[in-house]
């Protein structure tokens, strides 16, 4: 960061999920102006993550983003993405198995329909149930406490709240 001229608009942005191993020199005043703690997604944010990750994926009408979000408290964005990927893989496996079954039932390959209907046209509750069986939360409560402690130790507003009030001398109307 040293050597960047004052007349240039340069911003340094960094992100880590391991603030505990940052060199203290980088967190000293004047280095990084702001440290921003981004917590795990809340209920509303989890709904948004599900909608974003599954925006091009057909979902059964009885699968509720609201319910998925309620079931995933404590999940990170990456955990939610993995859950959706697991559900999708479950649907793909089911589709492949259905295709194999259909091929076994067909005696002659000429009978196979090229335009056969997709046996698994949407992600269903069963796909998500299978995904949940293999899902995991990657951020432990201890890790969250460490992040929050780091935030509290580096949050200028917390330090300002604990600072003594400055008693300025009376200026007698002078600025």
Walkthrough of the structure:
With 175 residues, this protein is mainly alpha-helical. It has a domain at 40-139: Orthogonal Bundle (Helicase, Ruva Protein, domain 3). The protein is 44% helix and 0% strand. It contains six helices and no strands.
Structural key phrases:
mainly alpha; elongated; 175 residues; 44% helix; single chain
Quick structural summary:
This protein has helices spanning 43-53, 65-71, 77-105, 125-133, 141-154, 156-162.
Given the helix and strand composition, which structural class is it? mainly alpha
The CATH level-2 architecture of the domain at 40-139 is identified as Orthogonal Bundle
The outline comes out as: elongated
Number of strands: 0
CA radius of gyration? 27 Å
What do the pLDDT scores average to?
85
Here the CATH topology of the domain at 40-139 equals Helicase, Ruva Protein, domain 3
Sheet with the most strands? none
How much of the polypeptide forms β-strand, as a percent range?
under 5%
The run of helices and strands is HHHHHH
CATH class of the domain at 40-139: Mainly Alpha
Low-confidence stretches: none
- Considering DSSP H and I runs of 4 or more, what fraction of the residues is helical? 40-55%
First-residue to last-residue Cα separation? 37 Å
Count of helical regions: 6
